[in-house]
């Protein structure tokens, strides 16, 4: 009897999970479908779900009208660049805080995180002015800098948590076993820290890739990454739902594929502290 | 060779003095146990010897050579940690070979040393496994294997058995003792468990609040405790202490008598009291007796004594088994 009840509960939870997942996923699914419709079908009421004439016209138009690969290139440069720069700054920072904490380490961490609590618009004016004065507007360097800065607290926090998980005993054991600092780093620390660094890297590439506020505000033509590419299709000439959807699909496809291939690493990294 | 000498070793963390002043001689080949309650400084002392902490003042000598400022590896000691501290990404073979690999020893020498250690510790079948695939006892053996391949001057053990269950702890205790008999290398072993200390040690160092309360063989400590702290710490169940008029009658500030040195009789005896709890262990019975004007006393009686809760019994200390202490707690 007890088993029957638990099976029913399991079914209910499975159904609930599917419903939640579908609700969350629906906008993407809808954009995907819309990207294959004509502009006319895209705004048809009642909406057509699957039975319409599928067309690749939107993708063709989008590719013709704008230089997708330039946007893609910009996205790769800024996302990867800001992530690498972020890691270069964050690894030593998180390292120091995890392995030789002081009384103020907690405060420093909290202060860094608190910068994420301010809405981006709050610093819009000073940042745009600084960018204009320093000639950073619409440059790769400018975008890399701003993306690094906004994501740095998260990178430091993530790395800090991973490094914290490495037991000090193991490092001391290596020291007892005669490892020099260099050997300790190469043979013990790095292999143990790599899963954490890898998942931080992946997550940060995703965050930087998807950042739209600053990338749209701080670029005009030269350094514009993919979010700006999508935004270009919600232009003053009117909304073109089908083309907008096609552009969106093209913008998220690379990151989606990357996420798909690295999901094991991502999940493992994100649950690193949870399962021991 | 592996003699260790501590000369007026002092250690402070920030402004807090953890070890005020300790001097100690450990002879080559001895099995020394540091024992004491948690926070007594025993692990700190071991870490000072290991070189994982620096002495604030004083000197540490190994084989007569001052190593107070030497890095851990230069001291040629091996350490076994409470948490095992195995390298999780390396196989058992990789873990045991690690110290030799750091020394850049030749391949054949490493293989031979690893196989030797594995044979001694029954790990031959597990050499290609990762630490996470091993049980607690096996992990501890790998940690010991990693320690022995270096042929260190001394082994340092930091509460190595406290993560194991009771049965395994007894078995590993024997294994470590056998290992010591086989290798005859100096061992310094830290524990809070006085049974481990008593069973394994050649000599015990009883520590309290960073001070050495007594240094001697297990039986010396048991038979001639220097003060009330050692008297209470060594022996289980712990010694009964009696203050006041009864102690004054024996010309002391405090008198102590071990539970196993109290003779229990149905009536008479030096002290008469009521049995509060009677714990039957099979081999022994622990009687917790409330004695008028003295307080609670514990007596260790044979397993088959009939006394029950609420019964009145008589207690008398055996001849010559009464310990007397002065107002400072020092033995008289």
UniProtKB/TrEMBL annotation, chain A:
Kindly give the membrane topology term recorded for this protein.
Answer: Multi-pass membrane protein
Q: Where in the cell is it found?
A: Cell membrane
Q: Name one GO cellular component term.
A: plasma membrane
- List each copy of the ABC transmembrane type-1 domain by range: 72-262
The scientific name of the source species is Pelagibacterium lacus
Q: Family, per the entry?
A: Belongs to the binding-protein-dependent transport system permease family.
Q: What is its main location?
A: membrane
What is the name listed in the Swiss-Prot or TrEMBL entry for this protein? Answer: Carbohydrate ABC transporter permease
Recorded superkingdom: Bacteria
The UniProt entry, under SUPFAM superfamilies, shows: MetI-like (SSF161098)
Transmembrane region(s): 12-33, 76-96, 108-131, 143-163, 184-207, 240-261
Q: Does the keyword Chloroplast apply?
A: no
- Its Gene Ontology biological processes? transmembrane transport
**Keywords, A to Z?**
Cell membrane, Membrane, Transmembrane, Transmembrane helix, Transport
* KW Amino-acid biosynthesis (keyword) present: no
Family matches, as Gene3D superfamilies: MetI-like (1.10.3720.10)
UniProtKB/TrEMBL annotation, chain B:
Domain (ABC transporter): residue spans on this chain: 4-234
Which cellular compartments is it found in? Cell inner membrane
What GO MF annotations does this protein's record show?
ABC-type maltose transporter activity; ATP binding; ATP hydrolysis activity
- GTP-binding found in the keyword field: no
Q: Which CDD domains match?
A: ABC_MalK_N
Membrane topology (UniProt)? Peripheral membrane protein
Please provide an example of a Pfam family that matches this protein in its UniProt record.
TOBE_2
Q: Which UniProt keywords apply?
A: ATP-binding, Nucleotide-binding, Transport
Q: Which superkingdom?
A: Bacteria
PROSITE patterns attached here?
Answer: ABC_TRANSPORTER_1 (PS00211), ABC_TRANSPORTER_2 (PS50893)
Q: Which SMART domains match?
A: AAA
GO annotation, cellular component aspect: ATP-binding cassette (ABC) transporter complex, substrate-binding subunit-containing; maltose transport complex
The protein's matches in InterPro entries, at most eight in alphabetical order, are given as: AAA+_ATPase, ABC_transporter-like_ATP-bd, ABC_transporter-like_CS, ABC_transpr_MalK-like, ABC_transpr_MalK/UgpC-like, Mo/tungstate-bd_C_term_dom, NA-bd_OB-fold, P-loop_NTPase
Which SUPFAM superfamilies is this protein grouped with?
A: MOP-like (SSF50331), P-loop containing nucleoside triphosphate hydrolases (SSF52540)
Task: Give the similarity note.
Answer: Belongs to the ABC transporter superfamily.
Q: What is this protein called?
A: ABC transporter ATP-binding protein
| Natural source organism | Pelagibacterium lacus
């Amino acid at each position: 009897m007890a088993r029957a009840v638990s099976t029913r509960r399991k079914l209910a939870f499975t159904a609930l999970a599917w419903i939640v997942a579908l609700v969350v996923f629906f906008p993407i699914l809808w954009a995907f479908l819309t990207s294959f419709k004509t502009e006319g079908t895209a705004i048809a009421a009642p909406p057509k779900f699957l039975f319409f004439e599928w067309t690749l016209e939107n993708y063709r138009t989008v590719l013709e009208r704008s230089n997708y690969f330039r946007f893609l290139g910009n996205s790769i440069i800024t996302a990867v660049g800001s992530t690498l720069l972020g890691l270069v700054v964050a690894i030593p920072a998180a390292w120091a805080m995890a392995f030789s904490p002081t009384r103020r380490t907690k405060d420093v961490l909290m202060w860094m995180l608190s910068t994420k609590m301010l809405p981006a618009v709050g610093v819009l004016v000073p940042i745009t002015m600084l960018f204009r004065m320093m000639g950073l507007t619409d440059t790769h360097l400018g975008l890399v800098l701003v993306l690094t800065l906004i994501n740095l607290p998260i990178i430091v926090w993530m790395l800090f948590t991973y490094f914290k998980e490495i037991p000090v005993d193991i490092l001391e054991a290596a020291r007892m076993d005669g490892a020099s600092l260099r050997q300790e780093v190469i043979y013990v620390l790095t292999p143990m820290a790599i899963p954490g660094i890898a998942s931080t890297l992946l997550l940060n590439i995703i965050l930087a890739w998807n950042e739209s506020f600053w990338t749209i505000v701080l670029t005009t033509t030269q350094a514009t990454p993919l979010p700006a590419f999508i935004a270009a299709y919600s232009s003053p000439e009117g909304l073109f739902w089908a083309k907008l959807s096609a552009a969106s699909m093209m913008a998220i496809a690379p990151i989606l594929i990357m996420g798909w291939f690295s999901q094991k690493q991502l999940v493992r990294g994100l649950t690193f502290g949870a399962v021991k | 060779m592996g003699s260790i000498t501590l000369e007026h070793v002092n250690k402070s963390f920030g402004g807090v003095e953890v070890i005020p002043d300790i001097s100690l001689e450990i002879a080559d080949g001895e099995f020394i146990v540091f024992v004491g309650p948690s926070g007594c400084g025993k692990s700190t002392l071991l870490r000072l010897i290991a070189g994982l902490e620096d002495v604030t003042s004083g000197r540490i000598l190994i084989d007569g050579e001052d190593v107070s400022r030497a890095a851990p590896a230069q001291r040629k000691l091996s350490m076994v940690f409470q948490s095992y501290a195995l390298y999780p990404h390396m196989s058992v073979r990789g873990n045991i070979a690690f110290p030799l690999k750091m020394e850049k020893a030749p391949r054949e020498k490493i293989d031979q040393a690893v196989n030797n250690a594995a044979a001694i510790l029954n790990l031959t079948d597990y050499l290609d496994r990762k630490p996470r695939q091993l049980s607690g006892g096996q992990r501890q053996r790998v940690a010991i294997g990693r320690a022995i391949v270096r042929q260190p001057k001394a082994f340092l053990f930091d509460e190595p058995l406290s993560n194991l269950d009771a049965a395994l702890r007894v078995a590993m205790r024997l294994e470590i003792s056998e290992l010591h008999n086989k290798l005859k290398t100096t061992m310094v072993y830290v524990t809070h468990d006085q049974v481990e200390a008593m069973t394994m040690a050649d000599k015990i160092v009883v520590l309290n609040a960073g001070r050495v309360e007594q240094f001697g063989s297990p039986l010396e400590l048991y038979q001639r405790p220097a003060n009330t702290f050692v008297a209470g710490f060594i022996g289980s169940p712990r010694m009964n202490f009696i203050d006041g008029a009864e102690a004054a009658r024996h010309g002391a500030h405090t008198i102590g008598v071990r539970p196993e040195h109290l003779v229990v009789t149905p009536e008479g005896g030096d002290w008469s009291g009521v049995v509060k709890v009677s714990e039957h262990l099979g081999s022994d019975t622990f009687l917790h007796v409330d004695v008028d004007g003295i307080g609670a006393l514990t007596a260790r009686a044979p397993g088959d004594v009939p006394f029950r809760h609420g019964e009145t019994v008589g207690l008398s200390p055996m001849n010559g088994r009464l310990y007397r202490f002065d107002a400072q707690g020092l033995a008289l």
